[in-house]
Design goal:
heterodimer, A: 466 residues, alpha+beta, five-stranded parallel sheet, five-stranded mixed sheet, 16 helices, 26 strands, extended, B: 447 residues, alpha/beta, eight-stranded mixed sheet, 56% helix, 13% strand
Chain lengths: 466, 447
Amino acid sequence: MVLINITGEKLQPYYFKDIPDTVPVITSSGEIESIPDDPDGFIIISRDAKKTHPLLGYLLAHEKYYYLPIWIIGAITPLEKALTEGEFTDWNTCRTVSEHIQSMARLIPGLEKADQDQKILTYMYVRNNFVLKPIFKPGTMQLYAYPLLTLFSEDTAMVNQWRYSLENRKLIQKDSIRDRIRLCPKCHSVRMNYIDTCTNCGSIAIEKKNFYHCFTCGNVDQEKAFHKSGILQCPNCRTMLRHIGVDYDRTLDDYQCRDCNAIFTDPYIEAQCYDCDYKDDPGSLEVREIYTYTLSQDGRLAVRTGQLKEMFSILDSFDFCSKKYFCSNLSWSLKLWEREKVLDFSLLVVKLHNIRKKTLSEGETSVTLFIEEIMQQLRNNMRTTDLVTRISEDTIGMYLPLTPSKNLKIITSRLEDTNKKAASKNNSEPTLLWSSFSVKTDWKKGYTSEEIMGELLGKIEDETHG
Amino acid sequence: MDNFFLDLSLFYMNIAGEIAQRLDAIPLIMRLFPFFLLLEVPYQLLISLGIIKYYLIHTAEKYTPSSRYSPRISVILTCYSEGERVGKSIRSLIHQEYRGDIEILAVVDGSEKNAETSAAAHRYAREADTMRGRTVRVIDKKIRGGKVSSLNAGTLYSTGSIIISLDGETSVDNDMAHKIARHFTDPLVMAVSGNIRVRNISCNVVTHLQGLEYCLGIGGGRTGLSEIGMINNISGAFGAFRRSVVEKIGGWDTGTAEDLDITIRLKEFMGRNPKLKIVFDPHATSHTDVPTRFRDLISQRFRWDGDLAFLYIKKYWRIFTPKIVGWKNFLQFTVYGLGIQITLPFLLVLFHIWLMVNFPAGHVAGILSFTYLVYTLFTALFFMQYLLMISREKKKDILLIPWIFAYPAYAFILRIMMTLFILRELLFEAHRYSTMAPQWVLEKGKF
């Protein structure tokens, strides 16, 4: 156990509580390497939650210490709580927890140099009944965040996708629902306004009006028409209306549009986004359910066997370029196409779907063979000028310059053949999913690389669900 | 033993014979004339004059537009076992055409037992949510405490400067609040008695006759009395009070007939402050459900008339001096209260017994039919006056004309019964056995 004092002050005895003197004390993250024995946990003493956060970031990103338990003495916010074991209570509890974590960690092959999947699964595995909880962040576009996932993630912009991918691959499972939020389908903001509008012309200038019903002649009109210097009189039959329920009654409270004078009982509710110009029926909004997660049986198995990485290592045989470079290259090509329609190119996104499930049902060898076959095919069709990037562990993106849609179709039809063959052989769902983009046919003015990639991944996502 | 009764009857027959001989000296016309009319006719004439005064002065006000004066009004709705019907009252109060605020305090007495009434009150109360200036508060009095406790509890919670007491089975016209409030612009007005009409009039014979009775007695009678400053009662079903006055006289007093009780105490207050007024507004209209069975009607009147005798003779006899209540009210108490309401029924009974003893059947029938004719004529004349000078629902009231012919019989029966009610009160303290409050509450009363 290591005590990290970041208060900048001399340690006061009341901070120590019942921590023994033998525990080494350091004052910054840089000193961790100088500790002779490998630490089995950290206790951070901090007065300021803002200073604690970078330290937690460092520890959780550390390739050796990411799974170790951390306690905090002093200032703590929900964010720190989500990233640590919580507040330090007493030494014995700390010892028990860290010993348990150590004993669990010893079971895991390849603890160090783990990728994001392995990190989160290890973190969840070594803790007893760990529940991955979202924290509420008012004021943000998405309202909820999973800080642990954000810290472990290799690409912070793709945290949500990563979470879905973990869930899709059955590595983590939903525990309990925390909230159900509605987001703008365009910009994913939660800041929506639900405004009641005229059913006829859509104007928001509507007002509630009372309508009276004269029992004598059956006349129905606005309240105003019935008022005659303080008394109620039917404008149609001139009967004095004195007793509600006997002479007259109010019909339903109705609305009237000030612009088009239409009368209606229920106004049309329109959802309007405050962050973009989106306006539509509330039913069109993206409904997102916020869950807590626990490690699934598959996830446990994956951690124990260390299979996680190996399964997709076949993909490594490609010469991957970084995603950033891939995207900037794509933007450049798009801009070029906008200026002069000369450099024809296509995009292909390929996903190996349900691989883990397949492995469990069909055995590792057959799946590996299948993946290899697919890769071989892709490689055969590739040219040296093509760019390949790894979008996520099971998805790759390909940039094919000077490949018209005609040629692309040849590639995809081959992929389909292989896929069908494999599916019919094993009598299972298709494993290979892809979507493609051809600049000549699919290009629209003002397209950005993010939009195109999002669309392509979205198509695949749709297929996995439907 | 047989001789004893023979002697006794001979003795009385001799006395009767003596009286009969003397009567021969009195002219026939005097013998036929139902002399008790002497007490009633002047009273009725006074009322008629009052109505004429009302007609001449107030007709112009009948359709006055709403004034700027619109104080906050608290309506205490005393609910008991009305059930769903309480909704009509709450709705009619929520939808008042009144500029000011109206606070409706629905006090459910014994709400555990009357869960249905309480639930209905809560449900209808929600209708006020969309109305500006209308609030409904349902006060559930779990343990029953009687009507007086409901009124006093309501007063405690109320915030308006005018307090209106209204029965749970009574709904009001939409201009009621405005009609009531306008009287309070006069700082001398302590209370306003409102008109009560029969809501379930079309039910049967009994309700039709009661409808006519309410028109004549309340709509007509109180209008006249109000004009001459001699209001007899502010009905518990519908009355309005200035809050400061209610507080000064200490709210409603325990026991039955709380309405007559508070009226008498207001008059006592008037004795000390002679300029103060109680007025009646025939156009501040409420509609109430009356008993539909004759049996229920009798038991209702048992309560009313018995309580009247109790209050006049037992509880408040000390204050019936001109010095305390003033000359006008003293006259009202003696002539109307003691004379017409308490003594007259006994005189009536005695007169008819005397008639039957002294005259042959044919003769008695003659006198009775003649009396009936006179009464019918009086009723018809008075009703016409009411119809022409007061009624604002002439189309509905005109339909009551045929019932005038049956009315004297109805009134006669009730008067005869009244002697029983009064005797019962005087002999057995019947006011301690009322349905208006639980037994344990009534027993605690001082009187």
